Amino acid sequence: MDTVTMSVIDSAMVAICREMGLNVQKTAYSTLFSEAKDFTCALALPNGELIACAEFIPAHIGGVPILVRSMIKELDVRTIEPGDVIVHNDPYRGGLHTPEHTMFKPIFLGDELIGFAVAIGHLVEVGGMAPGGFPGEATEVFHEGLRVPPVKIIKRGQDVPHVWKLMLANVRTPRTNYGDLRALISGVDLGERRLLDLVRKYGLDVFKRTVADLLDYAEARMRDELRNFRDGLYTFEEAIEDDGIEDRAYLIKVAVHLRGDEVVI
Length: 265
Known about the structure:
Layout: H1 3-27, H2 31-34, E1 39-44, E2 50-53, H3 58-61, H4 64-75, E3 85-88, E4 100-109, E5 112-122, E6 151-155, E7 158-159, H5 161-169, H6 174-202, H7 204-226, E8 232-240, E9 250-259, E10 262-264
């Protein structure tokens, strides 16, 4: 693919993610979205590969591929249909922590799934033993609030009432949570429309080849950077403060093995 087309499509996808985020921000109920901007919007391929994101909360971005793949594994991609929206916040299924809720919307061109619009946002309240989802005395994940495995909150464009009822009945601020969940849904709805407009403008074949070239280009640049470092074993360790239950620090160690343009962590 020529570099001009590749750059235009790349920039367009990033602009889509930024517009998704602005939609989330302007339709949210809580200041955690509207002021703190504690959310992230992204586009991913059907296999979970991240292809574009916006500059809101960078810490969310690394979780997108894991979240998408976990969702697909849980639901089976063959059960996902146009108009569906899936919600998920379970830390044991790729979620970041229980307050962080992810909305996925499949993007279909005809009968073909071409990607997912993804919006991740930190809800102000998730139930559990203390407001906000950060109880200092928690000793297990069940203390931290309601865990939601990947489940359809909208099916073929229609709300799934029992999912909404279950999620809102287990939080202290149902109205605010409802508004913020709707804001995330508005983001993925917009992402779906905008990406389809882009694909229809350039054609599906051009889109697929461009995305493949972008991923190859990103990998090539990363490998070039790695070659600038000396081969060897690099180690680091850091301690996390006590968790409030046991009076001790928790040591985290990492070893990075570098050889040429390959890294093993």
